[in-house]
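Review form for a predicted model. The reviewer records the input and the model, then writes brief findings.
Reviewer: anonymous (R2)
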Amino acid sequence: MKDTVMDTRTPTPLVTSDGPGFRADDLVQAAMDWHFGPDTGSRFWREKARTWSFDPRKDITTLADLALLPDVTDEIRTVPVGDLVPKGLAGAGPMRVFETGGTTGRPRRIVDFHEFRRQAGWWSSFLDREQVPQGGNWLLIAPTGPHAVGHVLRELTSLRSAVPLHIDLDPRWVKELMRSGRDKEAQYYIEHLVSQTMDLLTTQTIDVMFCTPPLLEVLAQSPRAVELINRSVHTILWSGASMDRDTRDILRHEVFPQVKLRGAYGNTITGVSPEHVPTAADAPVDGSYDDGSAVFVPCYTGFLMEIVDPAAGRGTVPYGARGRVLAHTLTRETLLPNNLERDLATRVAPRPGHPVDAVADVAPYARTEGEIIEGVY
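Model under review:
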């Protein structure tokens, strides 16, 4: 592939084929050409490549070959942000810098030009598939500021002609309170979020609500909140923390039986993987297809996931088996391969219309070599 310096304000993905025409190896090759090209790659990756005995543009051509590259997700916590900007995106439009919520420590940092608007479009396509109405008022209890999710939700409401009503959520502050044992202060903060939520639920008609699982569980304990949500909310979107199957079933069938409950898995680095719910038109493709699992599909034109042996961090497990999430971010803005996520999940065969593996029933990975604090996000 030839190096191309982008001069548009809306850069295209590295590959534009989707559905049956998508090949993961094509995405890998396009990412290597772009991120290590002398006229397109970032200073960070081009400097890395100078120290290697192999040429990533020639020697990395398949998904399996990505194992040659290092996991630098810890390193980008401190890299100067300018070193992360691909040279080929100079003049490509407004740049945003997004940071993770600090679940595993110091925030990680990436740059964005247009990818997260595409992420919103990917999410919106799943809502269309389930006939979630356009328009209406959306209550968004989500991190804003440096966090990508707030930006994606703003884009999502714009794409769906909806009115966004925001409640700001600072996940780092809650995690810090919990990390330092200040549980009472953390509870006060949660009550502050709930108070703002109740104000909007009682004064506005809410059609769609985005909420994290911990906060949704708190709201589920309030009869008044449950009444208001069941009365007007069509869909609850949840993300940002894990939700076990028992909790999900109780919320879906007992607490909010009048409301669609739809999740999304991902984070600032791995993008948005919306929940894929079977419809009458879907034909089962494996034995675990319709067993009540929360199944998530990555936006595979830039984000791929493998489920691997938790002990080794390598070696894809069979379909239906559980393992650790190994994520690869291969967008025009960001190259972050071999990111061994903090989550366990079940490997699921491709869903109808999507040619890549899905993941299901995500849960935190219990480990001893670090601390994981989910908090409210």
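Findings: The chain has two domains: 19-112, 115-364.
Further findings: The chain is about 30% helix and 20% strand.
Recommendation: see findings above.
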